[in-house]
Amino acid sequence: MNKMTVRNNILVNVIKNPEVMKGLSAQDWNRCLIEAKLTGVSGRLASDAENMGITADLPLKVQNLFKSFSYISATSTRKIKWEMNRVKRSLHGSNEKTIILKGAAYITKGLRCAEGRTSVDLDILVAKNRIDWAEEKFLAAGWKHQVVNDYDQKFYREYSHELPPLVHPDRHISIDVHHTILPVTSRVKPDIKKMLESAVQLDGGFYVFSDIDIILHSVVHLFHDGEIRGSIRNLLEQHDMYGEFGENQQFWDDLIPRAKELGLTRALYYSLKFSKAIFDTNIPEQVLIDIEPYAPNIIIDNIMNYMVTGVISPSFGAKGLGRWFAQNGLYVRSHWLRMPTLLLAKHLTIKFIRRFSDEQH
């Protein structure tokens, strides 16, 4: 795996070694907290300080901020758990396999990456042939469509991997109901049936993906379907999961074969590479060797190095025109991977015309 240099970053240093917090200057704290807020990891810093028993050693203003971050995270977790309860209630009496995804799965499994996390929505997944049934249940239980535009409704239903988002008018937490993990037009098409077959049932009736599939879902969401800009929290979650799941050697033995089975090896390559480069994740050397054949050619690899390390967090790397190139390059890449060229051109044209029209009114 090609070596990269990721320049010194105060937020990354604090995440890698929370003890660093005790020696930060006021200027360092300003930079660290601003970047943490922009990337959604403020609660993580508060959690790390609490777990390390160093909160009392920090400046009083920081202690008060951390207390606020902890309250916000706890409130978010409570809301997600209650929304799960409401989802379960609306589907009462069904033996359909309902998968909870992302933050809800991390919280329910008690994963390290859930500590200090805030979530604004609940992601679930049901089989494609039951997606209309699930929508009817949720609408009957009081959820409403957030997307009312005819074009967007049609686009979600024909080309996306989920229903148009639903939100409950009283609780204001949206639920995203998926039937697979990538848009149906995506250039990569993992077999969702295999992921459903390997899902594990939890106490309470919900299911989660297997540990490997949980991290592969995160990986493909960031490095295939996502725009990457400002997404250091997602990479941090993967770093945490590699550490937690990787305590079992079987996880490492099965990771690449499973990614190959699902067609997700390129996204996994990027995840392992940037997790190692930025957070110095403890990844077995043999895994890094075994993933290397799935790397892109050296030109693409170097371009991705520049773009990802340039924009994955606000203070990283690229500046000026270089940052513009990295941001827009990753934006175009994510859309190109998400849908065929003609559909992409049509979609972006319609979105541009609508945005231009809105700005004129």
Return the structural class: mainly alpha
Physical arrangement of strands within the biggest beta sheet: 1-2-5-4-3
Order of helices and strands: HHHHEHEHEHEEHEEHHHHHHHH
How many independent structural domains?
A: 1
- SS strand fraction: 5-15%
Number of helices: 16
Principal-axes shape call = globular
Radius of gyration in whole Å, from Cα? 21 Å
N-C termini distance: 51 Å
| Total strand segments | 7
Describe the structure.
It is a single chain. The chain is mainly alpha-helical. It has helices at 10-16, 26-39, 42-52, 60-90, 102-109, 131-140, 150-159, 192-197, 211-223, 232-245, 249-262, 265-279, 285-291, 298-311, 320-338, 341-359; strands at residues 99-100, 121-125, 144-145, 166-167, 174-178, 200-201, 207-208. The strands form two sheets. It has a five-stranded mixed beta sheet. Strands 6-7 form a two-stranded antiparallel ribbon. The longest helix has 31 residues, at 60-90.
Summarize the structure.
With about 350 residues, the protein is mainly α. Helices cover about 60% and strands about 5% of the residues. It is globular and about 55 Å long.
Topology (elements, then pairings):
Elements lengths: L9 H7 L9 H14 L2 H11 L7 H31 L8 E2 L1 H8 L11 E5 L5 H10 L3 E2 L4 H10 L6 E2 L6 E5 L13 H6 L2 E2 L5 E2 L2 H13 L8 H14 L3 H14 L2 H15 L5 H7 L6 H14 L8 H19 L2 H19 L2
Parallel strand pairs: 2-5
Antiparallel strand pairs: 1-2, 3-4, 4-5, 6-7
Helix pairs in contact: 3-4, 9-10, 9-11, 9-12, 10-12, 14-15
Keywords:
16 helices; 6% strand; mainly alpha; five-stranded mixed sheet; globular; 361 residues
